[in-house]
Design a protein that fits this description.
Two copies of one chain form a homodimer. The first copy, chain A, is α/β, with parallel strands linked by helices. The first copy, chain A, folds into three domains: 4-56, 434 Repressor (Amino-terminal Domain), CATH 1.10.260; 61-160 and 295-324, Response regulator (Rossmann fold), CATH 3.40.50; 161-292, Rossmann fold. Chain A contains twelve helices and twelve strands. The first copy, chain A, has helices spanning 4-11, 15-22, 30-42, 49-56, 75-87, 101-115, 129-138, 161-174, 190-205, 222-233, 247-259, 295-311; strands at 61-66, 91-96, 118-122, 142-145, 155-159, 180-183, 215-216, 241-244, 269-274, 289-292, 319-322, 325-327. In chain A, the strands form two sheets. Chain A has a six-stranded parallel sheet with strand order 2-1-3-4-5-11, with helices on both faces. A six-stranded mixed sheet of chain A has the order 7-6-8-9-10-12, with helices on both faces. In chain A, helix 10 (222-233) packs across helix 11. The longest helix of chain A has 17 residues, at 295-311. Chain A starts with a helix and ends in a 6-residue tail after the last strand. The interface between A and B is large, with 54 and 54 residues. Chain A binds a DNA duplex through residues 3-5, 13-17, 19-20, 22-23, 27-29, 32, 47-57, 114.
Amino acid sequence: MATISDIARQANVSRTLVSRVLNNKPGVSPENRKKILEIIEENSYVPNGLAKSLVLQRTNTIGVVMDDLCNDFFFRLINGLQDAAEAQDYNILFCSGRKDMATRLKYVDYLTGGCVDGIIAYGSRFDDEELFRYVAEKSANSVLIESDLSGCDIDKILLDNFHGAYTATEHLIRQGRKNIIHVTCDMNYDVGLERLNGFVQAMHDYRMPLGPDSILYADHFENTAYQQMQKRLSQSTHPDACFAGADKPAYGVLRAAMEAGLSVPGDLAVIGFDDDVSDSKDILFPPLSTMRQPLYEMGQAGVALLIDKISHPGRDPITQTFEAELVLRETCR
Amino acid sequence: MATISDIARQANVSRTLVSRVLNNKPGVSPENRKKILEIIEENSYVPNGLAKSLVLQRTNTIGVVMDDLCNDFFFRLINGLQDAAEAQDYNILFCSGRKDMATRLKYVDYLTGGCVDGIIAYGSRFDDEELFRYVAEKSANSVLIESDLSGCDIDKILLDNFHGAYTATEHLIRQGRKNIIHVTCDMNYDVGLERLNGFVQAMHDYRMPLGPDSILYADHFENTAYQQMQKRLSQSTHPDACFAGADKPAYGVLRAAMEAGLSVPGDLAVIGFDDDVSDSKDILFPPLSTMRQPLYEMGQAGVALLIDKISHPGRDPITQTFEAELVLRETCR
DNA sequence: TTGTACGCGTTATCAT
DNA sequence: ATGATAACGCGTACAA
C-alpha cells in the first residue's frame, strides 16, 4: 500500500503538495499537480481514511445498527436512510446485531470507536433496550428510530402507534361495524403493545363491546394470525371487522376469512398496519387497507437529526413523532 | 471524548500502563490496574479504533458490498457471512451500493481507504461488472461471490448454475415428462443466462423438443412469470413440466397452473431454483421442489477465503464452486 | 509556490 | 513495574 510519502518521494515534492492535490486545494504549480496526479494514478494510490479521519476528527460516515438487515420490511427505511445520508455526502454503514447481546454491544463499541460520526439504532424489541441504552450512553451523536427509550438524553424518531391504532379502529366503528376484533402483531415489540392499547382505547371511548374474544394474539407471520382467525371463525358469532397490528397478520386473517366463505369487506372489513409492500399479494387478495407507516420519511428524518446533532454538539435532544396514515383500499371502504 | 492520555493523567500513570490494561496485558501492578479500570469506567472511555488500526495496520473488520440489502433472499447469505466472520472475531460491515455507479465506487474507495482488512462483493448483475473490476483492482484482499469475473486475479465463490439447471431439467426428463418448458429469472443477471444454458443443454443432450414456446422470459417477480404462464396456457398444447430459473417465477407458474385447473404435479411438474424461503407460501401452494443454492455455506466460504487471503498476502487466487442440490418436494416427485 | 514540523490517539520498543 | 519515545498516514499552521 502506497502512502502519501511514497507519492511525494516519487514526485520529488513534499507531502504537503500531494495532500493539496488530493484535496483539490490551490497552491500547487500546474506542472507539479500534473506530475503528482500521474504518480497517484500509476500507484493506484488511495489515501488512508483512518489517518485522515484521525487528524480531521471527522469521518463523514454514519453507522446504522439494527437487529436484522435482510427483511423486505426495511426496504423503505434503508432507502430513506441512504438517500438522506448520501445527499449530504455521508457514507452509511450497516451492522446487523442479531444473536446475543454481547455481539451487539461489540458493534456499538466498534462504531463508537471513532469510525463513524454518529449512530442510528433501529428497533423496538423489549430485549433491545439494553442495546439502546448502551448506544445512548456511549455515543453523544446518536438517534433511536422506533424506540421510545425513557430517561435518556437522545434524539428519537417515533411513530405514534397508539394514535394510528386508534384511527384504524375508529374508522371501523364509524363505518358501523358492530363486532370488531384486533389481531396483534408480535408482542415482543413495543409497537405491539402500543397498537393494542390504541385499539382498546378507541373501543372503550366509543362504548364498543370488548370481550376475551375481541383480541387474538399473533405475531408478524401470516400463519399464526391465519390459525388464530380460523379458530375464531369456528365460534358461533363472527366478527364483522378486524384491525390487525401489522400487514402480515392481516393477510392471515384475510385468508382465513376467504376460506371460510366470508366476503371482504362485506362480511368482514380488514385494516392492517405498516403498509408492508414486501409481498405481491395483490392477485390473491383484495388490496389491503392499512395504516401506512412512513418509514422512508422516518429514515430521512433520522439522518437529518443525526447530522444536525453532529454539527451542533451539545444541543438538547429532539423527539420527532410521525403519524401513520389511513390508506383505504379494497378490504375496507 | 476522553483519550488514553486523559485516562493516564487522571490515574497519574503513563499511557503505556493504560494501554496494557486496555489490552489485558501483564506488567501492571494490581493497584494501578484497579485504579485505571475505575477511571476508564467513570469516563465511559472507549479507545479510538482509528488510531489503533493505524498503528496495528489491521482493523479486524470485513466490508461487504452488495447492491441491495433488504431482500429476504439474502437472509442465508448474510447469516453465513456474519457467523463466519464473528467466529473469527472479525466485525462485518454492510454497504448497499444501489443507485448509480459513482456511489458504488465511492463505497469501494471508502472501504479500501483502510477501514477494513478486506472486501466481499456480492452479485452477478451485468452492469455490476465495472464495480467488481474496481474492487479487484483497488483492493488486494477481496473476494467475489456469485460473479465469475474473468481476467482478474481475485478469489471467487461461485455456484454452478449451469449444472444445477441441467440437473433439474434432467430430472424432469427422466421422470418421463415430454413437454418441458423453462421460465427464466431476471436475464440482467449472469445466473439467468447460465441457468437457461443448462436447461437448453440438457434438453439437447436428451433430444427433447425445444421450440420457441419452450422458453418463457420472466424475472424475479411472481407476477411476470404468472402472466407469461397464463399466456402460455392459453395455447392449445400444454407443457407437462416446468423448470423455473428462480423460486419466485416458479410460484407464478404454479399460480397460473392452479388457476387453469391443472393438477400439480400430475398435469404439471415444477422445479424452481434457489430455495428462497422468504415467503410462507406453504399454505397456498404445494411445497416447491427446487435447486437449493447453499447461500449460507457460500457466505461462510467467502469469509474463510478472505481471512485466508489476509493472513497469506500474495497467495494465488482461489475459485471455489458450489453445487446446487435438488430438493424434491410436492411439486415434483 | 514550496517545505518543515507538529498533532490526531494508539501500540510497541526500549529504557529505567 | 513503569515510562519516554517512535511510529502508523495524514492535514495544516507556519515559515521560507
